[in-house]
Amino acid sequence: MPSFFGHFIIAISVFIVCFASSNSGETCSSNQNSNQNTNQNSEPSSCSGTTADNKENKFTKSWNEYLTAYEKAQDDVKTTACQTEEKSSSKLHCEYKRVIQQEITQYAQITKSMINEARKLASHPITYININGTLYRSKADCLFPARCQGVEHFLLKLSSKLPDFEIVLNNHDWPYAKKNFHSKPIPLFSFSKTSDYWDIFYPAWTFWAGGPAISKYPTGLGRWDLMRKNLLLSAKKWPWSKKLSTAFFRGSRTSSERDNVILLSRDKPDLIDAAYTKNQAWKSKADTLGKDPSPEVTLEDHCKYKYLFNFRGVAASFRLKHLFMCESLVLHVGSDWLEFFYPALKPWVHYVPVAPNASVKKIEDLLNFLRSHEDIATKIAQKGHLFIKDSLNMQDVEAYWVELLTKYAQKLSFIPTVEQALMKKITK
Ligand code: UDP
Fold this sequence. Notes:
five-stranded parallel sheet; six-stranded mixed sheet; 11 strands; single chain; binds uridine-5'-diphosphate
């Protein structure tokens, strides 16, 4: 029988192994492993106390999980993604059609009182009415004129193709129609939301104008058509073989979910170059996690790096589509905040998913895995790039607007009319 001292040594060993494994971001037993969601690199549950696994086995286990998730995703996409033939038969990609269908089938009909409710709910809502190809906007000034311009570019261009409609559009960053508070859908148009909201996805103003203005883009991040061209040129300049193996992130601390990549970078700068920049809300170093703000980096220069991180900010971040244009591998953190095109992008097919609560060690482990599996990394990078390059161009955005407003208008239970006192005609 072991002595008291012997028991003490065993207990200490168990504690050390558990502590090491929980810190390494690995699971403690294969049972716990099999319960893990392979869709995201979620955090493991706490250590069960087993001492059998040595560190090397645990290391292999997490990499096996990544491999399994990758292979499963390749199989799943064959059965779940819509096929390209469907795209050629219609201008709108079938994945976007699905999104619109989901949004609109929530409504048996859309009544005037539902639209009035949407108008009451949003702060500074904007009403657009289209009648016989003439577009009208509510007379109250736009709180964000560039954002209105970014939306009106599409509505004006398409108005003659569109049916008569009345919509209420929210051009704040966040959605309003929370399902918890409203038992029935409210037809408020917002650019980004989670599944907790009724809001209807419209393509963000930044496809044309009004994106975040940073020092590198003083007039905002808009004009997706021009950014696409610039980013494609940069991607050509930085093919995978020339890209740096360091992962990369630059942005402000609009969400603390970004902290762990910054902390990892401070510890392992060769593995990842991630730093916080200033935004308008910056007051002190506390807003950049205790360090001076880093200079901003153009999106074109992001293309120098093989692995690019995307995070939500206040809502979905506008950067996601730009990162794909670089032909780098996108590591997309979290899956809650969406724009209309996000559901078409599949984890482990177009990007590598990362859990929003992934620890520093877990992120390090994932990056090491990707650096050791460049065959997988390049395949995913290519797929993601091709989808955004081929299926998120300006024509796709226009086609989305047309289908969305056509399907929406079919649900209207009233004939839209213009009250001259409230609305003004808008022209190019
Ligand atoms: N951005 C950039 N370079 C930088 C910092 C930010 O290009 O050095 C871009 C970023 O990619 C995003 C936008 O500016 O599209 C706003 O970034 P931020 O992190 O401030 O906010 P987010 O919208 O992501 O919450």
